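Quick review question:
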């Protein structure tokens, strides 16, 4: 039974799938302090939060069974991602659940700052009929600069076009081709700062984006700019913005986020007549809160049940079309890694993975993580290594990872070859997916074979002479070891050969030692693939 802790207020409908799961127990305990979380987190497999709970390295260290942290929202500023990655804890979020909601709030803020709606409302309900003080501007024919053309930024751009705005977009991953398809002018931050009438930011808060709009940008900014921030506090330097408004550079600003939330009572935004603020409402709709919780709950359930998952923020995202192609190979890749690790003696120095055929056309980075996980699990334990931290652990141990690709697949549609180099030797194993048969090992070192990568395997190196197979079968039979399948691989008649046996149960070291003593048998190794 998996245990899930929900430490922030999250929609009941959103976590219903977890509550209904027969193999999951859900505890809702919002408002816990760090000390309180540390005291109880050790008994939980998963933690679900929104923005209130700060998931620190100390909490994760106490979470000995913690496999996944789910953030019911987009931002993960409140989660120590480096600590999670080091401990192999998957951090997931819900990047799509509040896209439309945040986009719509951005437009509400943009319209409000263009037409002084909150200020006019306050005067009107206060009994003052003042039309002259609130002469606004139209959105039509204005240049809107969008900093960050991800999901939300793209939706904002789409709607802004309907208002007749000209869109200038900046994003480090925005290509000329994609910008053209969207009807967006691909621009730099400096281009937008100097030319836009309105600017809205939709980037994550990182060391690179912190204060990306500051004093230097305000000095060259087009006079009369109006700025909207519904992304993250800190992207725009708050104090520099106030100075720019007071100097007449910026005509107005609308902020849903602050560098420190909630802001101090004397924060200059709160009483400034040209700044509109809301208390981080970008994702605060009934639909969004339910959607993000549903999305996160589904992925948490997949992770706990060891099924493919999406939206891990401490792993590269996998597009759906790529996931569909790679998913059948995940189990094979991990078992190839485990197989070659058990086969190789000495400290691992380098892992080389060669993808051939159709796999050469796919981003195989996610699959490489599974292979490296298989290799390292043999040395570090399966409970210490997963697809999140496998590459980090390899780097930490100075294990070089080399990935090669070739479109020549020879006898198979696709294949994976894993080569392990240690101080003692270099070993190789190749696997593929055979239609109707599933995953198969088709080569071990230079010998062709056909073996299902599962269960208990005995790998024997011997001289190709009559009687070897009989002697091995008799010895195993005398020790009550039943052979399920047998494969023999050789290059030349009478030369070196290997024998691959799958057996119904594990064999003792004594039996392995007896095998090695047989005439013309060179080495014997037991390999377990669970």
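Suggested answer, residue by residue:
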């Amino acid at each position: 039974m998996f245990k899930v802790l929900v430490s922030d207020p999250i929609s009941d409908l959103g976590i219903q799938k977890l509550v209904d799961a027969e193999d999951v127990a859900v505890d809702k305990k919002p408002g816990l302090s760090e000390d309180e979380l540390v005291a109880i987190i050790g008994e939980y497999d998963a933690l679900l939060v929104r923005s209130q709970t700060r998931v620190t390295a100390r909490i994760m260290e106490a979470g000995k069974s913690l496999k996944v942290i789910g953030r019911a929202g987009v931002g993960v500023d409140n989660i120590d991602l480096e600590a999670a990655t080091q401990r192999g804890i998957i951090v997931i979020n819900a990047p799509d659940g509040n896209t439309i909601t945040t986009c719509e709030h951005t437009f509400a803020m943009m319209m409000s700052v263009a037409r002084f709606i909150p200020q006019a409302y306050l005067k009107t309900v206060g009994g003052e009929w003042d039309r002259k003080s609130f002469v606004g501007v139209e959105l039509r024919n204005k240049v809107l600069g969008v900093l960050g053309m991800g999901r939300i930024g793209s939706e904002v751009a789409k709607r802004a076009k309907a208002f007749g705005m000209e869109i200038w977009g900046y994003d480090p991953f925005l290509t000329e081709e994609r910008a053209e398809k969207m009807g967006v002018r691909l621009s730099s931050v400096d281009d937008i700062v100097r030319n836009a009438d309105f600017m809205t930011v939709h980037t994550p808060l990182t060391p690179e984006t912190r204060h990306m709009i500051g004093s230097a940008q305000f000095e060259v900014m087009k006079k009369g700019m109006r700025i909207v921030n519904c992304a993250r506090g800190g992207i725009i330097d708050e104090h520099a913005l106030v100075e720019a408004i007071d100097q007449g550079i910026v005509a107005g600003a609308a902020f849903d986020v602050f560098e420190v939330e909630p802001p101090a009572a004397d924060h200059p935004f709160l009483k400034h007549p040209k700044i509109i603020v809301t208390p981080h409402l970008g994702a605060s709709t009934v639909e969004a809160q339910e959607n993000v919780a549903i999305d996160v709950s589904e992925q948490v359930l997949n992770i706990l049940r060891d099924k493919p998952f999406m939206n891990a923020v401490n792993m590269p995202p996998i597009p759906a079309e790529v996931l569909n192609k790679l998913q059948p190979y995940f189990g094979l890749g991990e078992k190839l890694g485990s197989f070659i690790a058990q086969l190789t003696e000495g400290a691992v120095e380098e892992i080389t993975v060669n993808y051939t055929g159709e796999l050469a056309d796919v981003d195989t980075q996610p699959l490489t993580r599974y292979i490296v996980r298989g290799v390292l699990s043999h040395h570090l334990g399966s409970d210490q290594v997963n697809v999140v931290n496998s590459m980090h652990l390899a780097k930490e141990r100075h294990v070089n990872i080399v990935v090669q690709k070739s479109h020549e697949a020879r006898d198979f549609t696709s294949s994976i070859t894993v080569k392990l180099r240690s101080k003692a030797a270099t070993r190789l194993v190749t696997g593929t997916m055979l239609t109707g048969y599933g995953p198969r090992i088709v080569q071990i070192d230079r010998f062709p074979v056909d073996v299902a990568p599962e269960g208990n395997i005995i790998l024997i190196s011997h001289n190709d002479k009559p009687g070897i197979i009989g002697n091995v079968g008799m010895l195993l039979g005398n020790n009550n070891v039943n052979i399920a399948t047998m494969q023999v691989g050789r290059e030349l008649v009478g030369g070196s050969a290997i024998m691959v046996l799958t057996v119904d149960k594990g064999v003792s070291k004594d039996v392995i030692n007896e095998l090695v003593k047989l005439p013309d048998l060179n080495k014997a190794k037991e390999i377990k693939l669970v």
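Why it works: The chain is about 35% helix and 25% strand. Residues 320-343 form the longest helix (24 residues).
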